[in-house]
Design goal:
The chain is of the alpha/beta class and 531 residues long. It folds into two domains: 354 residues, no CATH class; 103 residues, no CATH class. The chain is 59% helix and 7% strand. It contains 21 helices and seven strands. The strands form two sheets. It has a five-stranded mixed β-sheet with strand order 4-3-5-7-6. Strands 1-2 form a two-stranded antiparallel ribbon. A hairpin with a 2-residue loop joins strand 6 and strand 7. Helix 13 crosses helix 14. The longest helix is centred in the first third of the chain and has 29 residues.
Amino acid sequence: MSKQRASFWIGLFFAALTVIGLLTVPQYGMPVDEPAEQVILLENIKEYAIRFCGEPSEAVRRLDAMGVGRISESIERDHGECAYYLAAPLLLLGDSAPDTLMALWHAYTWLWFMAGVVALYHVARALSFGRPVACATALLLYLSPRFFAEGHYNNKDVVLLSLVLWTLAAGIRFHQAPTVRHAVFFALAGAMAANTKIIGLLPWGLVGLATLARLVATRTLTRRHLWGGLAAIAFTAGFYVLLTPALWADPPGYVRYLVDNATGFSRWTGVVLYRGAYYDPSRGLPLPHSYLPVMILLTVPLATLALAAFGQLNALRLIFRGDERRPLLLAVTALWLIPVLYVVWRQPLMYNGWRHFYFLYAAVAVMGGLGLDTLAGLVRGKPTLQRLGGFALAGMLAFQAVGIAWNHPFQYAYYNPLAGDVSQRYELDYWGVSTLTALRRLCQTEGGTADSPLTVGAPDEMSLLNLRYGYPNLSAAQRAGLKITTDTDAAYLFENTMYARMYDVAVPAGYVPLFSCTSYGHTLCTVYRRQ
């Protein structure tokens, strides 16, 4: 197949993946932290407006009227929103069309997720994987249930994963030809990842060190390469400063705040359910050393874990044999090894599984691809084994795809069989994403109207909070036919299963289950009707 024709089919493949995700956008609910993320975006926009337009400007007055502060004065200034600057005009919809805003926001987030999927393909190709293996490597991310779901709405951790993959893709191009032109793209990706979270600078630094090590080891370091390296550093610093208005008011203070929160995040208080026990890191009950590696092992499909383990073992073999990809394989290995070892050793505050470390999946997927590529090499020239291997790979990916379709739109609660009895041991719908689906279903089955609205309450404060965040994103007709209440005699009760168990809250007598939202056999939430 010619290169041009192959590029056409590859482009069509990724276009189809993108469209499938966009078509599924409307079914997902809204996590309760999404409005806060949009406020952080507005705070960044206000900082730009003050700096470039002045305090008396119309833009600043409008943001003042909305109660938006400056990002340089916000406790959230340690993580940026540069990936969403282009989406800022969507927020003009505001309260006038919250359901439309949510759908467009999630569609934009999905495009960022797909950018990461495409970047993973380019990383695989740059590591000399064949096109079929590179496509399968991209599917290891796309068909991972949690990432497929959260790729629609997790605008921090999944977007950081995509930016890390973009950094790796651009960094490998720079590694192969460290010129000023390649340095610009590498620098932009690294700066955007670092703006999102400062840990995003890690892959940039690792690829940079890999490039320097290669040039020194092969004695090919030239003045042109030095200029390329200096350009990468200068452009990264410049892009980071431009993309991070929170830095401008007090650069030294900002850096101190950044480091303090990166090594000891302190703004979250609450409990974590892990292996059937409750932990409260903010009150002297830290999570076990095993928390991060175990949560990764329990929430990634087993086949992907097996491929990644096999690929990592082969990566070590190639490193010791002096393979030309050795510097890059060392960088990808360090990308997951350094953070995991740090977390196991220092036990920093974490919650909601490993979402704050989703960027590690970049290394998992690359090593999974290397595992596939190694297996492909072992069966090359053996037609029977090639066919069996192809069928096995297709079956694995099809199994994951069917699971995603069957459990749509609740794939974010996926655990693999190693987890055992999940409902009693681990967290499920931490951010209340199923709430909106439950309210929509209630409206469709019970038929509330503006003249006779359905009254919905909750047995605990967290379930009630989920209701209050889900309700505004119903359609106008559904909002008119539904009323959220704190009354103890509401006609219906909504219960988030995880929080009910976490805080030991029972549904009052006189209510019977109407329906539940389930994912991979686990109950996420239940709506009860008063008898």
